């Protein structure tokens, strides 16, 4: 039935402009990749700025297209959201990330945490609570080892429904992080209503931190606010030693970025864990 659907779409191709055609090509390719099991996850270390130790990883989806080249998530995630495919992809990501983290735990790396990105559509159209319960149950990973990264847009929309889902997720022991903090909506009221654990400071405030006093002021304010609210901070996009040093001086708790490590295949994270004796 799926094949027939694709052929039907193809029939309309001549009427579409290049942009729409490209999206359709991506969407069909993504469908096949999900069915064929050719999507994969890379994992980027999250480092404790006080100790330098890797405390966890963020799972980032990777898609190797039929020509063998990686297609960036920034290109296919919007297509997956538009088509609703992000719900099934998101379920796969949750399952796979928990399975991998549980394997690290089973190998003795019991402090390892894994963070998974959630799309707003998984809240609106999917049953995210059930997906998380399933992923934890199937993998045996303890809830506290899983962090869900939410964007500000999720927390602003459909508040009542989102609130109850989030309360139930918290009961599983799962941690919540606000991704790309500071780039979404100006409302901070959700910080009062939701039991968020971590703010991830967007890399647009971090990349130039060592050279731009405005950025330093913003990061300092976010860290102070977060700590007053009992939240931890993760700085994203740390690319050099001077930025690492300043973030540490500003009291930021954790960091991610090319300075420490790029997103890596699971096997390379396993190797890092063994080398570090974690
Ligand atoms: P994000 O959640 O903000 O992820 C961080 C992005 O920054 C990743 O890009 C990562 O590779 C990149 N990055 C890490 N360190 C550095 C650095 O030092 N400098 C620079 N310039 N970039 C750095 P990536 O993997 O291309 O992912 C892009 C976005 O796609 C993610 O942004 C996230 O919004 C989305 N995404 C990725 N995986 C998933 C997923 O499984 N589900 C959903 N819903 N979205 C995902
Ligand atoms: Ca993220
Ligand atoms: Ca981010
Ligand atoms: Ca500036």
TrEMBL record:
Asked whether the keyword Ion transport is assigned, the reply is: no
Q: Ranges for the EAL domain?
A: 23-277
Q: Which UniProt keywords apply?
A: Membrane, Transmembrane, Transmembrane helix
Name of the protein described by the UniProt record: Diguanylate cyclase (GGDEF) domain-containing protein
What is the organism of origin for this protein?
Sphaerotilus microaerophilus
Query: Which lineage?
Result: Bacteria, Pseudomonadati, Pseudomonadota, Betaproteobacteria, Burkholderiales
Portion of the parent chain present? 472 to 749 of 757
């Amino acid at each position: 039935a799926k094949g027939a659907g694709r052929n039907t779409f193809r029939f309309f191709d001549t009427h579409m402009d290049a942009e729409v055609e490209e999206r359709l090509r991506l969407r069909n390719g993504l469908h096949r990749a999900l069915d064929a099991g050719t999507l994969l996850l890379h994992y980027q270390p999250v480092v404790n700025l006080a100790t330098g130790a890797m405390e966890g990883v963020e799972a980032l989806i990777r898609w190797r297209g039929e020509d063998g080249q990686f297609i960036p998530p920034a290109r296919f995630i919007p297509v997956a959201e538009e088509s609703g495919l992000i719900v099934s992809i998101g379920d796969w990501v949750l399952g796979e990330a928990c399975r991998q983290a549980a394997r690290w735990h089973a190998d003795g790396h019991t402090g390892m945490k894994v963070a998974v990105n959630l799309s707003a559509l998984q809240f609106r159209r999917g049953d995210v609570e059930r997906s998380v319960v399933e992923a934890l149950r199937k993998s045996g990973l303890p809830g506290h080892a899983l962090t869900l990264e939410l964007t500000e847009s999720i927390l602003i929309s459909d508040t009542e429904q989102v609130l109850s889902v989030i309360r139930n997720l918290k009961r599983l022991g799962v941690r919540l992080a606000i991704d790309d903090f500071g780039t979404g909506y100006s409302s901070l009221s959700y910080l009062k209503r939701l039991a968020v654990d971590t703010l991830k400071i967007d890399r647009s405030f971090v990349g130039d931190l060592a050279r731009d006093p405005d950025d330093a002021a913003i990061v300092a304010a976010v860290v102070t606010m977060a700590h007053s609210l009992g939240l931890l901070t993760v700085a994203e996009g740390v690319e050099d030693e001077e930025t690492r040093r300043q973030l540490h001086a500003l009291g930021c708790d954790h960091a991610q970025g090319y300075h420490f490590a790029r997103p890596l295949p699971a096997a390379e994270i396993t190797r890092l864990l063994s080398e570090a004796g974690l």
